[in-house]
Amino acid sequence: MPWEPDRTQPIIAPDRALAYYAEVLGCDRAELSLPDTLVATFQQRALDRMVQRIGSAPPARWPTPIFWPLASGSYRGSPLAVARLPIGAPAAAAALELMVAAGVRTVLLVGSAGSLQPHLPIGSLALPTEAFRHEGTSHHYLSPSDTVSASPAMVDALCSAALHRIGAEPARGPTWTTDAPYRECAATVGRMRSAGVLTVEMEAAALYAVGLHRGVRVGMILAISDELCDSWQPGFHTLAYARGLLMAADIALEAASSLRGPAES
């Protein structure tokens, strides 16, 4: 039968979990509070770039079960936090839930993805406007549907920031989120490519779903790390990918500094 998310109250709520960690650490709950705006990545290289840009000390480990790196500072006068989230939809969504409980309301994500389109070679940038939900996490937050959308305000902010920094907009379009990188099979890749899907990655659908569920605006910019157009062409250790990832981090910080006002519904 089709899966429907449970609409009753969760037994383990993120705000209660955050209070528990404060109790364990012997600190005040307020000491775990975060700024309104978070720029997060899954790659250490991008985190190092953002920490440098905001003039922060080396990131500390945010005191939660995963102990992911996090630093606070400001960029162009706008206070924000930067963090490295765990890879994969379930862990990344759990991390974001705690950060929302700690005060985050605006989220810009810097990720990596495989390209499904010939016009997006390694090192290119893409803005996923929506994500096909081939992971499991989003289905615990939203009713069944093929896709979940990014916040339009975040997509627009990232596009404007890219125009300002590099004079061009990244490609906009759908991404395909999957839990199983070694099951990106030929028929599905071909079907996604024919449907105009730009990229494949592991987190967007889940984090967009958390954002919609919590009333938090979430957007993402992706650097192309490998190509899946005809055969697999990895580029994880190329200069092109490194440059694309650092540019994506710069664009996300630029977008974050331009944002004002509360999250939309």
Task: Give the averaged pLDDT, no decimals.
Answer: 93
User: What's the CATH architecture?
Assistant: 3-Layer(aba) Sandwich
Q: What would you report as the Rg, rounded to the nearest angstrom?
A: 18 Å
Order of helices and strands: HEHEEEHEEEHEHEHEEH
Compute the number of structural domains.
1
Helix content: 25-40%
CATH fold field value: Rossmann fold
Brief overview:
The chain has a single domain, classed as Nucleoside phosphorylase domain (Rossmann fold), CATH 3.40.50.1580. 34% of the residues lie in helices and 26% in strands. The chain has helices spanning 14-25, 44-53, 89-101, 152-166, 186-194, 204-214, 239-258; strands at 37-41, 60-61, 69-75, 78-84, 106-115, 125-134, 147-149, 171-178, 199-201, 217-227, 233-234.
Characterization of the model:
With 265 residues, the protein is α/β, with parallel strands linked by helices. It has one domain: Rossmann fold, CATH 3.40.50.1580. The chain is built from seven helices and eleven strands. It has helices at 14-25, 44-53, 89-101, 152-166, 186-194, 204-214, 239-258; strands spanning 37-41, 60-61, 69-75, 78-84, 106-115, 125-134, 147-149, 171-178, 199-201, 217-227, 233-234. It has a five-stranded mixed β-barrel with strand order 5-9-8-6-10. Strand 2 and strand 3 (69-75) form a beta hairpin. Helix 1 packs across helix 3. The longest helix has 20 residues, at 239-258. The radius of gyration is 18 Å and the shape is globular. It starts with 13 loop residues before the first helix and ends in a 7-residue tail after the last helix. The model has no long low-confidence stretch (mean pLDDT 93).
